[in-house]
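Researcher: I need the complex structure. Ligand is calcium ion. Inputs:
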Amino acid sequence: MINIKKCALVMVCFACFLQACVAPENNSVKSAKPLNSQALYQADRLNGHKMMPIGDEHWLGNSENFGVFLLDKQGEKLLEQSGNFEALDVRPLNNTAVESSHKWLVSSIEKELGQLQVFSLSHTPLLTSQDRGKETTEQPWSIETLMDIRLTKTVINNVCLYQSPTTQDIYAFLLTAQNQVEQRLIYLAENAKPVNYLIRQFPAPPESSACAVDDVKGLLYISEEMTGIWQYSVDAEKELSRQAVALVEPFGQLSGEIKDIFILQDGSLLVALPDISQVQHYQLEQKGKQAFWQQTAYQLEGRKNESISALQVAGEAVKLVYYDDENPGYYTAPTDIVLQPTKSALSELKSVKSNAETAPVKRYGDAADDPAIWVNAQKPEHSLILATDKSYGLYVYNLAGEEVQSIASGRINNIDVSYQVEINGQIFDFAAASNRTNNSISLYKINADGKVSDLAEISTSLPDVYGLCNYYSSLNKQHYVFINDESGLYQQYQINFSNGQVESQLVREFKVNSQPEGCVADSASQTLYLGEEDYGIWSISAEPDGGDALQPFYRVDNKVLFDDVEGLSIYHGAEKYLIASSQGNDSYVVFSLEDKKVVTRFKITADPQKGVDGASETDGLAVTSANLGGQYTQGLLVVQDGRNVMPVQPQNFKLVAWQNIQQLISSN
Ligand code: CA
Ligand code: CA
Ligand code: CA
Ligand code: CA
Ligand code: CA
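Model: Output:
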């Protein structure tokens, strides 16, 4: 249940920027369940910290005096990497060609140096001595240092890893002595190599003691020693905010110092509370529409459990693993925790990397909106991106993303490009944009060299113009502009250039029930596709005598297409594809126009090597199949990016080579 009074208190006390406060139900406080611990590993001068299971039968631990070491299930030491280590996290590396060989990426903090050390741990089972015909001294296990990360201005106190379920790339969250969190990309799965790219920094809670990441849900948990546990998104594209998960008494059920946290495979949390010799388990439960964290406490009599991890074997109850400071050693304890079944919602969602980004628009806030691609017929590599800034006007970018021109047209929202019109013998291309300042259509002339200039202003009778797209009828050789109003009304204007000037005529109206925006017209099939933001995609004849009957194309289902439906554009290749911005889950859906089937859907993610972030909260998009040279021989997709980060700047547009999307389609 949401406890407003306590939320208010917490907000005052800790001045947190808390989104919502989910407190465990007070009436559910139960006494702690006693647990029996068994020694796993004890040694003189151990000064251990954390131990993690490796597979189902091995343990990787660390120690101030013995470094990082590997044990088998009898507690026999198999490997040791000397040093003074604290904090430990592990992720699998699935890059090996040899199926019987396994690798893990291991991160730990070398305390003396205050630096992160990244290792790879490998296991290659030996052939039996019979097969080899001789005794061997070869070790099936090996550990090697991949990389050290040292921060120049501060030391690293703790580390936790995050492995992206889509790319398998591994990120490290570093908690620094300066109360900062640094998110770094440390392993690129594609190239199977360690890297070190700073993704972002943000303030950490002042007494941060530990962290852990739920890879499936993309959530980072940070414990604040005397306060509680906070949840953040691992996605650098998301707004920075945190939510309280569990708080220290009297606001919650945690007591004493929070020393460590661990995330189980089902997303539930284990918390180490040595002052009261407890491990608490927090599981998110749903009661009607309310979600709350259900707490279960486990008592470890006479123990000072300084850390917490768990062995999770399929079909078996969870077994705790912790370091006890009072009776120095690593211990295990069986629990009655049964993991909840989990489903990975994003498993079908693939990803492509941004190839480039445009210069940011001039002002912060939601400003950039819709791009269009002008293909330069003579010099395709000099093609341009015309894009709207709904607080300023028009920007023109080259394919390197550099701003080459801008026009202060007012609050233009959507834009589209058409080719080959003629006035008084002069042939040129034109762009049309919905202008919210005047509820008009702003027309721009595009010369053969790419120079853009004002051409005409066409007034409409709509009170709140919004989306727009162009149409050329191959039947009657006429140009049209579709413009919609926030109310759902569409108007189709014929644009006539034949009398030595620009003339317009309203030729049709039709409507949808709620706010539409993105649209695209296909000359070859004389079809208009339009997005009703909350509802889905419709098609209708694009011809002026096409009537008002809408055909459903794809409905918002919040499984594939998430509202709002935003930008729409068509790729005219060997096959024709409709690409839609599925804004609600920061992704893009590609439909075949032959059979309306979804051929792929993907996110646009960062390319830290190029210093380009991914795209999220996308409004408009545009695609071309034209060969633009360079990376764009199969064409180009341009999308608006609602959050331009790495570093944080006003919004901009991301460029993606079509060949990367084609690969996703072809691999299906
Ligand atoms: Ca927006
Ligand atoms: Ca919109
Ligand atoms: Ca928009
Ligand atoms: Ca972005
Ligand atoms: Ca950026």
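Model: Summary of the prediction. The CA atoms of residues 482 and 492 lie 5 Å apart.
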